[in-house]
């Protein structure tokens, strides 16, 4: 909604923030897009702007209030800063030695940096550290911080596909066996859309994508069925040979 009706975008995010705050809870997100939206709304809430006055009036109808001290966290931040890399390594029972992963951060984790405050925007390391906690190698690749193209799909498919295919090719050239995403929205692009293009022979080479929560779960010995590995449209069963 952000590009169509900015106020509606802010109201929906602010309402979620207020519902959590009303229960004395912080918010943790699995999706980078949700993370960016909620962080932006929280920034607006903290400032005395015309938007804040409209948000206050809207929430008052439900007897909700703005709470600016609530914390919005992404699961990667929680795992890295609050659980800790050492604690995660202790839980890894199936180390992925030899597995090379291209870690895709996602736009809304890094930009705008003064809003999301996730990691160093030019050279982040949180996701790479978490990938390597599973025993895998997080490869260095030029396009790791670039967009996946998903926001354009359905509006400008040609450009969306070009952005994704260029990124996939760069990951392959860097020697990655798989791409890893921590955002379900990006994962849909790398998995479902990539598979669709492959079936139509509109894509040259493929680079299957695995969600980080799936990779971490497998390394901790969680059953593949519980992690819904079979729900991925591109085959990622090959990760098992790197145990």
Structure summary:
The chain is α/β, with parallel strands linked by helices and 243 residues long. It has two domains: 6-70, no CATH class; 78-242, Rossmann fold (3-Layer(aba) Sandwich). Helices cover 48% and strands 8% of the residues.
Give a verbal description of the structure.
The protein has 243 residues and is of the alpha/beta class. It folds into 2 domains: 6-70, no CATH class; 78-242, Rossmann fold. It is 48% helix and 8% strand. It has helices spanning 6-22, 32-46, 50-60, 75-83, 85-91, 107-110, 113-116, 126-133, 157-173, 184-199, 212-219, and strands spanning 27-29, 72-74, 100-104, 137-138, 178-181, 209-211. It has a 4-stranded parallel β-sheet, sandwiched between helices. Strands 1-2 form a two-stranded parallel sheet. Helix 4 (75-83) crosses helix 8 (126-133). The longest helix has 17 residues, at 6-22. It is globular, with a radius of gyration of 19 Å. The chain starts with 5 loop residues before the first helix and ends in a 24-residue tail after the last helix.
What are the salient characteristics of this protein?
alpha/beta, two-stranded parallel ribbon, about 240 residues, 11 helices, Rossmann fold, 2 domains, four-stranded parallel β-sheet
Which CATH class of the largest domain is shown? Alpha Beta
**Might you state the CATH topology name of the largest domain?**
Rossmann fold
Count of runs of 4 or more consecutive helical residues: 11
Shape label: globular
Structural class: alpha/beta
């Amino acid at each position: 909604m952000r590009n169509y009706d900015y106020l509606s975008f802010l109201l929906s995010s602010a309402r979620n923030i207020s519902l959590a705050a009303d229960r004395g809870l912080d918010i943790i997100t699995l999706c980078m897009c949700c993370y960016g939206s909620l962080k932006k709304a929280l920034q607006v809430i903290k400032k005395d702007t015309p938007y804040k006055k409209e948000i206050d009036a809207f929430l008052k109808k439900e007897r909700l209030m703005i709470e600016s001290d609530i914390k919005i966290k992404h699961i990667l931040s929680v795992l890295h800063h609050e659980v800790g890399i050492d604690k995660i390594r202790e839980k890894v029972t199936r180390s992925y030695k030899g597995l090379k992963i291209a870690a895709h951060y996602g736009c809304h984790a890094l930009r705008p940096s003064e809003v999301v405050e996730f990691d160093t925007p030019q050279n982040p390391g949180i996701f790479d550290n978490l990938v390597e906690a599973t025993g895998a190698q997080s490869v260095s690749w030029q396009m790791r911080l670039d967009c996946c193209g998903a926001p354009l799909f359905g509006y400008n498919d040609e450009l969306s596909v070009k952005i994704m295919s260029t990124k996939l090719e760069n990951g392959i050239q860097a020697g990655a066996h798989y791409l890893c995403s921590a955002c379900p929205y990006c994962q849909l692009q790398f998995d479902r859309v990539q598979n669709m293009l492959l079936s139509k022979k509109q894509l040259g080479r493929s680079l299957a994508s695995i969600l980080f929560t799936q990779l971490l779960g497998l390394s901790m010995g969680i059953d593949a069925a519980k992690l819904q590995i079979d729900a991925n449209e591109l085959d990622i069963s090959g990760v098992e040979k790197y145990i």
